[in-house]
Amino acid sequence: MLLAGAMASDPKPRVRFAPSPSGYLHIGGARTALFNWLWARKLGGSFVLRVEDTDQDRSSMESVQAILDAMRWLGLDWDEGPGVGGPHEPYFQSDRKAIYRQHCEQLISEGKAFRCYCTKEELDAQRAALKAENPKAQFKYPGTCRDRGDQPDLPHVVRFKAPTEGSTAFDDKVFGIIDTPNKEQQDFVIMRRDGLPLYNFAAVIDDHLMDINLVARGRDHIGNTPHQIMLYRAFGWEPPDFAHLPMMLSPKGEKLSKRHGHVAVQDYEARGYSPMGVLNYLARFGWSFGDQEIFSRQQLIDAFDWTRVNRGDGKFDDKKFADVNFEHLKQPELTDDDAYVARVKPFLEEAGLEHDEVRVRAALPLIRERARDFRDAVNHLDFYLREFPVMDEKAQRKFLVADNAEHLQAFRDHFASFAPWPSDVGQVEPMNEALKSWLEGTGRSMKQVAQPVRVALTGRTASPGLFEVMSVLGRERSLARLDRAVELCRAGG
RNA sequence: GGCCCCAUCGUCUAGCGGUUAGGACAUCGGCCUCUCACGCCGGUAACACGAGUUCGAAUCUCGUUGGGGUCACCA
Known about the structure:
The structure is a single chain. By secondary structure, this protein is mainly α. Helices cover 46% and strands 10% of the residues. The chain contains 19 helices and twelve strands. It has helices spanning 27-43, 61-74, 97-109, 120-133, 199-209, 224-235, 265-270, 275-283, 297-303, 318-330, 337-350, 357-368, 374-381, 393-399, 402-416, 429-442, 446-458, 466-473, 475-492, and strands at residues 2-4, 14-17, 46-49, 113-116, 157-160, 167-172, 176-181, 189-191, 214-218, 241-245, 248-249, 314-315. Strands 1-6-7 form a three-stranded mixed beta sheet, with helices on one face. Helix 1 links the parallel strand 2 (14-17) and strand 3. Helix 11 (337-350) packs across helix 13. The longest helix is centred in the last third of the chain and has 18 residues, at 475-492. It is elongated. The structure holds one RNA strand.
């Protein structure tokens, strides 16, 4: 057995992500891109983006755009590829047809590939006949056209003369040595009838021409690897290293697809996830670093290593994902105030809320420990940003009643003269003290007062501490809300 | 079915011959408390099974079972 990839030297990695633009950026694809990107960034290598759009029926420019947008949103920048160019242009396979044709001709002239004139129908018929005779038999292309004369004018596909003796092995950076008997192979098609290359052929040529020295992709490509290695050898090229990643399965263990909910990166963007929240969850899926769960972008780059990538497939867990994202929103070290404000802004606009940046920043410490994503943050921000809060009907009925008017009025009057009014949520302690002594002095209980005040200020029964809210709202707005609540109590009661 | 791969709490995982099998999410209690949240403390919960190797296996070998991938003129 000839072992590919075993003794590759260790130059700067040149890795690639090669999506097929037939939809959106799949969450599993994003992880593949991430691992490649991390490796390139860690070692100062290059991350190449190549668009595999040879199947014109399934590819679209909208899809290319969606994928590039998602990559940019995640911050997975590429050193070569669409938009940035590079020394190995073009980076769209649909612009490289001449290259594939030329290499195909080379293999044919060297006797390593041949034109096959069999039609799909003929092959199907042969397969059916074999099945009829022996249901368990495995149909393989019988080599009908292997030694038939070359007739380029006839409609044909081009097949690679695959070896049938021995085996093809490679040393995977994740799975170790994978050895596949060649007798399993058949003369596979490298060029379609319409002259367009098939995946295995185009990928090999591009990876070689683009100097890719490590191909990292999903485990579903393991079976393609022997084919590709055969092609490298046929061309006399050194195969790159390979690293295959375990699969991301649905919570039920099935292949992850749209029916399982959110699988497109853009779905998470729309839900208000943070790019680093997404990246962090994906990084920890099939890879670990001791007990560490939360990573900044730089920590990920520093810590990433193929030796810590696992082999077992995993099941997707939305709850864990949400929590990792939450962790990134909570910690200012991971999402600083500027980033937070910038990310939440479009969601505020979408909700039609006034984007009062000063007040948003003032409320941020309160929001951070409550909002699980930026969309959720808008909900928590809502009552700070309106003139008056939207009253929750049940809350109003229960707490803004005649009996509470007096408590609210007294609270309002007492704190109207309080000075200094806290300008920061961290400065509310004096007000808390004042509240306690006021309650004692007037014979009121916290229970009697707190919830009515809360509803008055926020329109809700759940919110941050009373004085934290008041410090964000400011004196005037707070008092106005209390006044309005007193009116509501009297009118409603 | 052929070939390939995988197997630790429900989930993501640590473990790389000797551990009370650890962490995180989820879940269940409790503390904190003006509500919510954060935070803190604690509980339930795993080595798929069977043979070996070894003084000693979650760790090594083989088998069984289970799961996944792949067998296109898709990628």
